[in-house]
Write a structure and sequence with these properties.
173 residues; mainly alpha; two-stranded antiparallel sheet; 64% helix; 3% strand; elongated
Length: 173
Amino acid sequence: MSRWIQIIEKGFTILAITSTFIMVCLTAADAMGRYFLNQPISGVYEITEKYLMVFIVYLAFTYAYQEGANIRVTILVSRLPSKLNLVIRYFVQAFSILFVGLLFVSATQINLERFREVVDLTKRLSLPLWPAYLVISIGLLFLTLLIFFDLWNVKKGKSGLFKEESSGEPVSM
């Protein structure tokens, strides 16, 4: 299972990086068109806001989790006895599974209600929003599964929630 999680997480990371690159290129082209040619590209704002930002955020969750890029306040927990600290870490991991799982369920319910929504790029061109909604649900589902399977790494100190710092090294693909 661990191998599949790594493959999926790497794929999500590549898609998030690609979405970031596309967003930067589209925004730069739109800005140049707007300021130099007085003609912006229609629909760039909508594509950036409704699709690319969603892809970047929800597909990068897993990478951020694996790298330990989350906020921790360790002033109290670091001073507790190791057995109590371990119990607290298991509780936090279980709570995180429950919380992200509930986010997945809520997002999926909302997304199913909005399945037929579209975004108008021009007067003649509109795109469905369901792909972006689907990415939200998939990203949250995979994050829930990742945190769940990481439960067995809590005792070893290798859980993504409790990494002391991220490596700061670039992603190797």
